[in-house]
Structure to design on (99 residues):
C-alpha cells in the first residue's frame, strides 16, 4: 500500500496526463470527481463524475481511504458524493469514511 501512495502522489505532481488503472477505472477518470470532494464547499458532482463512479469498484476505492488525503480528497465527502450520484448501495468501506 505505501507504493500506491507514492504512485498516486506522483500522478498529482506530473504535468503530462498519466493514467493508472485503479479499482476498475483509471486515475484520469477519477479526476472528474475531484471538485466534488475537495474544498470547504464543493460543487455537486457532474454527470461525468457519476458515470465514472458507477463503473468503478467502490468497495476497492473506499478501502484506499487512508491515501485520499494525499490526493487532497476529503474522505468525509466521499459518502456524500456517492449519495449525490444516486448510489443506493454504499459499500461498508465507504460508510466508514464519515467517521
Amino acid at each position: 500500500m505505501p507504493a500506491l501512495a507514492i504512485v498516486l502522489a506522483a500522478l498529482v505532481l506530473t504535468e503530462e496526463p498519466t493514467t493508472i488503472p485503479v479499482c476498475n477505472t483509471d486515475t484520469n477518470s477519477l479526476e472528474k470527481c475531484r471538485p466534488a470532494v475537495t474544498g470547504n464547499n464543493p460543487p455537486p458532482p457532474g454527470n461525468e463524475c457519476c458515470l465514472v463512479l458507477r463503473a468503478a469498484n467502490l468497495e476497492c476505492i473506499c478501502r484506499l481511504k487512508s491515501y485520499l488525503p494525499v490526493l487532497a480528497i476529503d474522505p468525509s465527502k466521499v459518502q456524500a458524493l456517492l449519495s449525490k450520484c444516486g448510489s443506493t448501495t454504499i459499500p461498508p468501506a465507504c460508510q466508514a469514511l464519515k467517521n
In short: The longest helix spans residues 2-13. The chain is about 40% helix and 5% strand. The chain has one domain: 2-98. The mean pLDDT is 76.
